[in-house]
Amino acid sequence: QVQLVESGGGLVQAGESLRLSCAASGRTFSTAAMGWFRQAPGKEREFVSWISRSGAGTDYADSVKGRCPISRDNAKNTVYLQMNSLNAEDTGVYYCAASTAIRMGSGNRYRVSGYDYWGQGTQVTVSS
After folding, report:
1. pLDDT at position 26, please?
2. 98 burial via Cβ count (<10 Å: 0-12, 13-18, 19+)
3. 75, 13 Cβ separation under 8 angstroms
4. Up-side HSE of residue 1: CA atoms within 13 Å toward CB?
5. Cα dist. 5→43, 66, 106, 120, 122 in Å?
6. CA–CA separation, 94 vs 86, rounded Å?
7. 23 near 5, Cβ under 8 Å?
8. Is the pLDDT of residue 70 over 90?
9. Which one, of 47, 4, 49, lies nearest residue 28 by Cα?
């Protein structure tokens, strides 16, 4: 079992930054690949970023590539999403998710169905 709690969301101006955190409980965190997704009002939940168990591998949606690095600290059971140069299109509820699959498969990292555990989400609102 993995329980996930996101934090760090808020209301910011366009161009500003936020760092989202996702704290995990349970001994399996270091064996879980982690992902960030977001959901804007009236839209489906969409992939934002992914990080491998060790942190050596990362992947990003084109919309955040180059400005929103993902990282993790397995000693602290926490994954982070540093969000820079925020714009109005980044507004939404941000969710972290964990996959404990032995082999996730490169396609599954982009899918909601590819993850076993989800947090409750943290709201990010960017005003222009």
Report:
1. 80
2. buried
3. no
4. 2
5. 22, 25, 25, 7, 9
6. 14
7. yes
8. yes
9. 4
Encoded tokens for 121: 């989400």
Question: What's the one-letter identity of residue 23?
Answer: A
Name which of 79, 117, 78, 120 is nearest 101 in CA terms.
Answer: 117
Predicted local distance difference test score (pLDDT) of residue 28: 81
Q: Give me the residues paired with residue 97 across strands.
A: 35, 118
Q: Which two tokens stand for residue 71?
A: 């990282």
**Residue 16 CA from chain centroid, whole number:** 18
- pLDDT at site 106: 74
Sign of the alpha-carbon dihedral angle for 114, 119, 122, 123? positive
Between CA 35 and CA 57 the distance in angstroms is: 12
Q: Are 33 and 23 spatial neighbours (Cβ–Cβ below 8 Å)?
A: no
